Amino acid sequence: MAPQTIVDLFEEAVTHKSRTDALLVKREGSFQPLSSAEVRSHVQGMVAGLKDLGVEVGDRVALLSENRPEWLVSDIAILSAGAINVPVYPTLPANQIEGLLNDAGVKVIILSTAEQLEKIREIQSKVPTLQATVVMDLEEPESDSLRSFANLQDQGRQAWQRDPDGFLKVRQGIGPQDVATIIYTSGTTGPPKGVMLTHANIVANVVELSRVFDFDHRDKVLSLLPLSHIFERVAHYLMFYCGVSIAYAESIEKVPINMQEVQPTVVACVPRFFEKLHDRVMESRQLSTGLKRALSDWAFGVGERHTRHILQGTTPPPALAFQRFLASRIVFSKLQQRLGGRLRFFISGGAPLDPSLAEFFLSAGILILEGYGLTETSPVIAVNLPNRFRFGTVGQPLPGLEAKIADDGEVLTRGPSVMLGYYNRPEETREVIKEGWFHTGDIGHLDSDGFLKITDRKKDLIVTAGGKNVAPQPIERLLKASPALLNAVVLGDKRPYLCALVVPNPEAVSDYAREQGLSFESYGELLQNPQVREFLMNAVEESTAGLASFETVKNVIPVEKDFTIEDGELTPTLKVKRRVVEKRFKNQIEALYAESSSKPE
Fold first, then answer.
1. Residue 219: how many CB atoms within 10 A of its CB?
2. 278-322 pLDDT, tens digit each
3. Whole-angstrom distance between the N-terminal and C-terminal Cα of the chain?
4. Looking at residue 109, what is its pLDDT?
5. Which of residues 142, 174, 206 is at a domain's end?
6. Residue burial 482-515, b: 16+ Cβ < 10 Å; e: rest
7. pLDDT, tens only, 534-573
8. Is there a domain that residue 286 lies in?
C-alpha cells in the first residue's frame, strides 16, 4: 500500500530501507552516523514528550533551528503527534518571528541554541498562545515551560514504554487530508502568508519524485539548504524514503571541505552556490601559467564542443569523445575530486539558474539539473532529469501534475500537491486558486516537447513609460555574470529607461583604481568617482550586448555593500526583496532620473 501520510513515509523508510548511517553529523572532528533505528527511537521519545507538554491533535508547534538531526526528529515527532509543524528560519530577527508565532497561534516552540532562545525570551510576553519552549542545546530543564530536548525525550521514552498503544492510536488517526505544516512564504512583495500543506500534498510530491529519480541505498546527499524551506524539507523526505544517507553540512562556508569528507552523490543547491564555484574555477584558471594554463584552456575547449553535441542530441565524433575522455582524466578529475569524487549531479532550485553556468559545468563533466516549484505546490512542479534535460528550462512537469500557460503568460498548475490554502486568508486563497488551477505568479511558456521555461515573476515585470514590457531577471543574470559585478537589481517601472542598482566587485574596482592612479579616502568615495561609474557602465554594456534598446540599462547606481538577509533586503532563500530595495534607495533613484530626465528610451 502506498504511503498516505508523511508519518507513513518515515515508517516505510525505517522499516524497509533502514541503514546504519541514515543521518551523518559532524561531531568531534568527524562525521558520526545515526542509524534508522536510533532516529525512530528519538522520534518516539519526542512524540511522547510533546504529549507530556500538552500538545494535542491540530496544535501548532514551531521549529526554529539550523539543519541538524534534531530538526528531522522534531518534525516527524510533531507530525506523529497529530500536530502541525510551523518551521521558522533561524536567520529571522525576533520581531519577525513574533509575527509568525502569533499568526499561527503556536503552542510550543522547539529551538536549537542559546542564541535562538534569546530571541524567544525577547518576544515571549507578546505571544500569548506560547506555553512551552524546548531547547536542543539546553542540558537541564529550567522550569515546566522551559525544557531541554534530551530530558523531554527521556521522559517521553518512559511514557512510550508504559503506553505504546496509546501513541500508536494517535498516529493511526492522522489522515492524508490533515494539515501537516504551515510554512510562511518569504514575502518578496508583501507580508508573509502561511501556506497550509496537507500530508497528501507533500506525500504526492515525494512519491512522484521517487519515481522519476533512481535514488537508492548507494546514494549519499549533503544537506546544506535550510530545512525551514520546503525545497530542502521535501528533499529530506525523499532521500529518507529512498534509503539515501543524509549528511548535514557544518555551514555554507565549510561546504567545500564537507564535500570532500562526505563524498556525496547528489547535492541540492541554489544558483548562488554555482556562481561562486564558477568564480573560483575561473580565478584558478587565470592564475595558472605555462603548461597548466594551456591544458586547462584545451580541456574546456574540448568540453564545450562535446557539450554542444550533447545538448543538440547528436553523437560526438570518436576523436572528440576520446579528447573528452583525456580532458576528464587530466584536468576535470581535479575539480570533480574537490566535489568529493562521487557526484552524480546537482539539483538547483529556489531561483533561476543561468543556462551558461549549467553549460560551463557540463563541459567539465558536472551535471546540474534545474527544477521549479513553489511552497504552495509542495514544492516541485517541474524538474530536469539525468536522462531528460534541457538547459534554460526547468524541465517537464512531474507525472500527476498538469501545467498550462494562461493568456497573459502566467504559469498555472493543478494536481494533488497544490496547497490547501493560506492560513486564515480565504480571500487571498481564492485569488490564486481558481477552478482548481493554482496561479503561480510566474511568467513562462512550454516548448513543443513540454519543457517549461520561466522568464520572470508576473509582479516583477517592468512596464516602461514607453509601454515596453521588460522582464528584469534575465537582464540581472547577465549583469551578475560580469567579473566586475557581484549583484544587480534592474529598475524602471513607468520610467523612460532602465537603470540598475549594482553591487561592484571590490577587487575589480580597486584594481581599476590602481591602474588609473585614482586617489580616494574610502571605498564609498571611490564608487562615486565618475571614472569608476564609467568603468561599471562599460561592464554593464559588455554584459548586455545584443539586448533590444528598451531592455538595456542606461545608468547605474553603485551600492557599496551587497544585499543581505539581516538588512531585510533578501529573503531566507536569497531572493531580492525588490520593493524593500527600491524603497531603501528611493532618494538615489529619484535623483538619477531627475538628472537625466531627457534621456531617450
1. 19
2. 988 998 988 888 999 999 999 999 999 999 999 999 999 999 999
3. 62
4. 98
5. 174
6. bebbbbbbbbbeebbbbbbbbbbbeebbeebbee
7. 999 999 999 999 898 889 999 999 999 999 887 888 877 7
8. no
Q: How many domains does the chain have?
A: 2
Q: In this structure, is the dihedral angle defined by the CA atoms of residues 501, 503, 504 and 510, taken in order, positive or negative?
A: positive
Q: Over the stretch 118-168, which tens digit does the pLDDT of each residue have?
A: 999 999 999 999 999 999 998 877 787 899 999 999 889 888 888 888 878
Domain span including residue 467: 461-595
What are 90's three cell numbers? 533561524
Query: Tell me, what's the pLDDT at 489?
Result: 94
In a 10 Å sphere around its CB, with 0-12 CB exposed, 13-18 middle and 19+ buried, how is residue 311 labelled?
A: middle
- The CATH number given to whatever domain includes residue 524 is 3.30.300.30
- Structural domain includes residue 252: no
**Whole-Å CA distances, 103 to 62, 211, 420, 503:** 12, 37, 17, 36
Angle ∠(232,358,410) on CA atoms, nearest 5: 65
Burial track 151-186 (b if 16+ CB lie within 10 A, e otherwise): bbbebbbebbeeeeeebeebbeebebebbbbbbbbb
Place of cell 535550510: 226
Q: Is 488 within 8 Å of 503 (Cβ atoms)?
A: yes
Whether 513 is in a domain gets the answer yes
Domain ends where: 113, 147, 174? 174
Cβ of 121: how many Cβ atoms within 10 Å? 12
In DSSP notation, 143-164 reads BTTEEEHHHHHHHHHHHHHH-H
The DSSP secondary structure of 276-290, one letter per residue, reads: HHHHHHHHHHHH--H
C-alpha cell read off for 436: 482548481
Cis ω for the linkage preceding 572 (within 30 of 0): no
User: Among residues of the chain, what percentage have pLDDT more than 90?
Assistant: 76
CB 525 within 8 A of CB 471: no
Amino acid at 126: K
Number of residues that this document lists for the chain: 601
* Cβ contact 457:374 at 8 Å: no
In a domain, 1, yes or no: no
Amino acid at 189: T
Q: What is the mean pLDDT of residues 464-468?
A: 82
